[in-house]
Amino acid sequence: KFTVGIKTGYCLQNMILYARINGLGFDSSYRNKNENRAPVTFLVTVDQYKRMLPGPVFVSGDVKRDTLSGFLQEVKQLVEEMATRIVEDPSIIDSAHHANEVAMLTEATIIVQGSDGWQPLFFMIDKCLPEVGAILLVWPKMTICLCQFHVIQAILRWQTDSGTSEVKPKLSRPAKYLILWAFRQLQRARNEEAWKREVELFRQRLRKIVSKTNAYHIIRDYFEKNWFCGEWRDLWADIGLPPGHNRDNISTNNFTERAFKLFDEIFLENRANKSAYRLVLIIANEWFEYFRHWQPDHKKRPGAAYHQMILDGHRLWNSGYAIQDAGHDDQGQRVFKVLAEM
Known about the structure:
Elements: E1 3-6, H1 9-22, E2 24-29, E3 40-46, E4 52-60, H2 65-88, H3 101-113, E5 123-125, H4 129-138, E6 144-146, H5 148-158, H6 173-187, H7 192-209, H8 213-226, H9 233-236, H10 254-267, H11 276-292, H12 303-319, E7 323-328, E8 334-338
């Protein structure tokens, strides 16, 4: 029953500076972290450039509602205590945040003077009921968002999911696309009145997309049971988002997924870690320090720029002027030669 929470002053200050404005990501990873498959739970946010920054970490073999709520309650208390200390003595602000001292003091003051203490803008999660319950135990009125990517993934995989013995209708790719489009329109419902109107439109569209009556009823019942129910509806529709936000702004849990990908690739070197104690030492001594000492001060390039860069790279690779196929080496591995002059 190994259970530990890990934090530093720096990561608590990340929570103060960005959570109220940019929200939080909350997720657990089981794979290759320790010998007991005890999941690692990350609490993360993003900075003004939309780059992921770490918050406190929880390692436990028990990630049920009550243990997760205990972790979140402890984090809330620690953040509020840190905010009080900053208001009383701004010199304790971590050197990594010196460029944002004014904003840090402002956010800390909001926490100290607010009647409800630390209030993140939202929590972005995958479809995990214990996480929902844990968050609401600590913040009963918190906005919780389901990751759009995982919503779409779940809908697409439902047809091939082997978890039930139910006979599921086969859908063509165009039919799947149209169902997702109709579901996306339904997500735009912003209040109860709009929901009643949009859900009826969704049913009408679904009936046109799926011509067979039996198939229509099966698919409709799937959505009614898994997505329109009280536990989940307000977590994926615009009806559950803060004022001024919609699903185009708050969309996916990618920044939390990015944290786990970075942790596995850089800190675990894409190897399965076997020791829980080594895991804790890596998080405490290396994970937080990596971000403390690497603080980009510029915006990320637009997605279109990255896309064009990839296209240019493929064009250069295939041109024959930069890379040449040099055959195979003694061990049968394919070798490419990078030309010195172009």
